[in-house]
Amino acid sequence: MKRILLSVGLAVWLSGCAHHDDVRPSSDGVHNIMLFSDSRDAGSKEALKQARHYCKQADMVAYVVNLDIIYNSDTPESTYITQKGVANAVEAAGMAMWIFGRNSVDDAGAAMTIGGGIADGALGNPYDVRLNFKCG
Length: 136
Known about the structure:
The protein is an alpha+beta fold and 136 residues long. The protein has one domain. Helix content is 55%, strand content 21%. It has helices spanning 2-15, 40-56, 77-100, 104-123; strands at 23-24, 31-37, 62-71, 127-135. Strands 1-2-4-3 form a four-stranded antiparallel sheet, covered by helices on one side. A hairpin with a 6-residue loop joins β1 and β2. α3 (77-100) packs antiparallel against α4 (104-123). The longest helix has 24 residues, at 77-100. The chain starts with a helix and ends with a strand.
């Protein structure tokens, strides 16, 4: 059991070390990051985090040249945001029922949690985040 817990803990810790996988270095000094995200805020934060880490390796600071976030889906953005909120609410309510419920209530909560997670995953990552930056 200890080995399993140690392995899971190590995997979680190492997954937090994904530093700047999306950075595309450039010879002219203006580097690019392109990634997909499920929200504008999360996408810009992730891109900036990767830029900072990339520049920090050379003891420099990241300076944003340009940041573009484009919503890219056939579903209207307002509908996507509503659906995302509903999926997250169902998942959270299900989690509470799963943890605090008894008998069939916790079973329903488990189903809601899983269903909300599936719905959230099915919505995808419609935000195309493009960050250009320099290290200085």
